[in-house]
Amino acid sequence: MTTRGRAGMVGILAGFGPWIVYWALSGAGLTRGGVAAALVGALALCAWHLRHSRVRPIELTAAAFFAVHAIVTIGLGSPVVQRYDAALASATLGAMAWGTLLFRSPFTALYAREQWPREYWEAPLFRRTNVLLSALWGAIFTANALLGLAALRWPGARLMLVAVLPQLLIAAGVVSSIVFPRWYPRRRAAREIAQRDPYPWPAPGFAPDGRAEGGRHDVIVVGSGIGGLTAGALLARRGLRVLVLEQHYLAGGFCTSWPRHVRVGDRRLRYIFDAGVHDVSGLGERGAVRHLLRQLALEDRLAWGRMSHEYVLPDLRVRVPDRVDDLVAVLGAHFPAERAGLGAFFAEMQAVYRELYADAHLTGGVPTPPLTVEAMLAYPALHPHAFRWMHVPFGGMLDAHFRDVRLKQFLSALSGYLSDDPAALSVGAMAPIFGYYFDGGYYPLGGSQALADALAGVIRAHGGELRLRTAVRRIVVENGRVVGVISGDGRLDHAPAVVANADVRRTFLDLVGREHLPRDFTRHVEGLRPSTSAFVVFLGVDYVPDVAPITMLAAGAQWLGIAIPSKVDPSLAPPGHSSVSLLTLMPAAAAGEWSRKVPGYAKRKRSLGDTLIARAEQALPGLRERIVYRQEGSPATFARYAWTTGGAIYGAGVGQWQPPVKSPVEGLVLAGAGVFPGAGIEAVVISGTLAAEAICPVSGRATEAARRPVRAA
Question: How far is CA 10 from each of CA 98, 299, 499, rounded to the nearest angstrom?
Fold first, then answer.
């Protein structure tokens, strides 16, 4: 942390100036002269600070105290203040110190601002440091007031009680005010970094050049979502023997595609649908997905199509331009009263976004919190916009820039990529989502399965194995360390490291078992509430709708997402046809009511599908008459195929505790939407990268981002 020497302490000492003058003169028997000099000094300091618009409590308190002292002692000739001055002066200062704490404005903070850069002033660490310092001074002043009262009881010890001991306490306060702000932030930063890795077991050791024989592997990945495949591909490329176990018949988790064939007369029509992924971020210059593809030599094996967006609100329809400056202009035309706010908002959000990714090339290609004390203390100055806004509610940032409710709703459209509760999202969570505006969102040509298959191909190409239709019954733990997994058929595979890319609750409560976990960790896991689920309607239609590939339709407080990836990849549907997905989020409470075992399930699913189709016709008139193929998916469908609690599609709900990458079980790490940084393809790529790093750290991680652009069709 960069500071400006002892400037803050000098300010406090200057504020004490009138008191020092008074104590010196009154101690020499010149009480009235001391009162007059102190009052003049205090008023002069107040006037100087008023001129610079920064009146401070020590000077104000001194001016008030010595004004009263002058009236009583000089004006009225009463000795009462002089008699009790030692206790009264310290009690007055103590009241000032405790009062500023009561009003949540610690007095030392005003002086510390001369020492700390402006970016730190609203930081919790800055406030905490000054709360403690102001409390220390409050305790010193209170103790000196008590010593002053004691001097009245024992006048023979007055010199010791009102001069020696108080000055020693004040000297201790001065030293603490110099040393504490330098020591305490470093201690807090070190503790915060340690809290991110509460289980710092060492990376497992692996036998060099071994072969996966007799059920023995280096790493077993449970679940083949993109987080698990990322970890598996990186570890396989680093030379480890990797086994991936997946209960589904496709690898990829929500990043899977599947074909459907429809017979229409003599024609056999083929549509390809995606389980959930239609729009991928992280392919910008410093994006995590781009870095992963580069690491795995997959850049030239995958082609991507840009997914443009369109938002439909009551009385407002906007096709989002590819350039953010053009978007600002378009929105400014629709909301002329908000033009200034729009420019400021997007400039601020883009600065937050860029700063979050600024150091990714130093941390394995993924944005992470600062990893060292020095980096954490320097972060506010080097990343001022991210530091300022990261933990602010996204709604608060919108309120700071706009008044128009419709504009705020428009700018919240993509919150559904993270949660069904926009109010629960922070700016730090939403900034990467705004990357869709800054760097674009893309679709892997051939279907989202192409990305999963590419990662699985890397694992196989480096000697790894992928077993589909293989459920895991148990993660085997012995003496606090993972030793392997047992599959549903009873087969035991050994490994000193396991990557769990599965629902967090099921991983620990069902596969690991409470008996192997610390009690507090188990309580956290048991308390996790699932995120939103969703309801989706897959449609094959006999025309190409005139809307953007990603169209968001506002329907009350909810949005209906319309994805038509065949607009950027015509191979997903017959010529002149389209593959369409209609998706709406469903809160966890409502999702819990869906079960395939409940009578009338199919009828209920069909009915809700009809409702979504009717809503979609606001953007796609006549849709119902153009349907060739139709299938619905409910929360029970997501639970069935993804094995998530309540059919959750984003892991646990936002705003809850997140387990660390390293679990309490040595050798067991986590990847996927349930850990940092959360849900979304880019996010789980980051989690998979961190999981691989925990198992097999790479030395010399700093890399320079390549300048080659993503290959787009």
Answer: 21, 58, 54
Identify the helix (H) or strand (E) that includes residue 140.
Answer: helix 124-153
Q: Which pair of tokens denotes residue 54? A: 């920064």
How many C-beta neighbours within 10 Å does residue 353 have? 24
Q: Are 502 and 643 in contact (CB under 8 A)?
A: yes
Tokens of 223: 């679940």
Q: Let me know if 557 is exposed, middle or buried by CB neighbors in 10 A (0-12, 13-18, 19+).
A: exposed
Tell me: the pLDDT tens digits for 309-351?
999 998 899 999 999 999 999 999 999 999 999 999 999 999 9
Bridge partners, residue 72, by sequence: none
CA distance 687 to 607: 38
Report yes or no: 111 and 9 within 8 Å, Cβ to Cβ: yes
608 Cα distance to chain centroid: 34
In the chain, helix, strand, coil percent, each to 5? Answer: 50, 15, 35
The helix or strand, by DSSP H or E, that contains position 472, with its residue range, turns out to be strand 472-478
Give the closest residue to 386 by CA, choosing from 357, 356, 360, 359: 356
Distance CA 106, CA 131 (A): 6
Stretch 538-565: mean pLDDT: 93
pLDDT tens column, 243-299: 999 999 999 999 999 999 999 888 999 999 999 999 999 998 889 999 999 999 999
Quote the pLDDT of residue 706: 36
108 neighbors 91 (Cβ within 8 angstroms)? no
Tell me how far apart the alpha carbons of residues 713 and 708 are, in angstroms, rounded to a whole number. 15
Per-residue pLDDT, 8: 52
Residue closest to 501 by CA, chosen among 244, 197, 166 = 244
- C-alpha span between 338 and 407 (Å, rounded): 9
Element (H, E) at 669: strand 668-670
Round to whole Å and give the CA distance between 114 and 105: 16
Q: How far apart are the C-alpha atoms of 426 and 432, rounded to whole Å?
A: 11
Q: Helix, strand or coil for residue 559?
A: strand
In this structure, are residues 444 and 280 in contact, taking their beta carbons and an 8 Å threshold? yes
Summarised one tens digit per residue, pLDDT across range 183-230 is 988 898 898 888 888 999 999 988 765 555 667 999 999 999 999 999
235-245 pLDDT, tens digit per residue, is 999 999 999 99
**Token pair 């003049």: residue:** 40
Amino acid at 476: V
Residue-by-residue DSSP string for 478-510: ETTEEEEEEETTS-EEE-SEEEE-S-HHIIIII
Q: Which residue has the tokens 């530091």?
A: 387
Could you identify the residue written with the tokens 């051939």?
446
Burial of 391 (0-12, 13-18, 19+ CB in 10 A): exposed
Q: ∠ at Cα 278 (256, 346), nearest 5°?
A: 145
Among 442, 617, 447, 609, smallest CA distance to 545 is for 617
Distance from C-alpha of 543 to C-alpha of 409, rounded to nearest angstrom: 30
pLDDT (0 to 100) of residue 210: 55
Q: Is 431 exposed, middle or buried (0-12, 13-18, 19+ CB in 10 A)?
A: buried
pLDDT digits (tens, 9 = 90+) for 303-317: 999 999 999 998 899
pLDDT at 49 > cutoff 80: no
pTM as predicted: 0.86
Radius of gyration in angstroms for the set of CA atoms belonging to the chain, rounded to a whole number: 32
Q: Write out pLDDT tens, residues 473-503.
A: 999 999 999 999 999 999 999 999 999 999 9
